[in-house]
Amino acid sequence: MNGDVYIGQWEIIDKVKKRHGHGKFVYALTGVTEEYDGEWNNDQMEGYGVYKYLSGARYEGNWVKSRQHGQGTFYFPNGAKYVGQWENHKMSGRGMYTDPYGVPWEGVFINGTFDSTIQKRLKAEYEEEQKIIALKHVASVQIAEMKKVFSLEKKTWKENFMRFVITNLEEVDRLVAEPFARWEDRNGDKWNDVITQLMDVEPRILKSKEDSKILGDRVFGVQLQGPGQILEFIKHTDTRRMELALVNSETGKWLIVACIDAAQKP
Question: Are residues 242 and 196 in the same domain?
Answer without folding.
Answer: yes
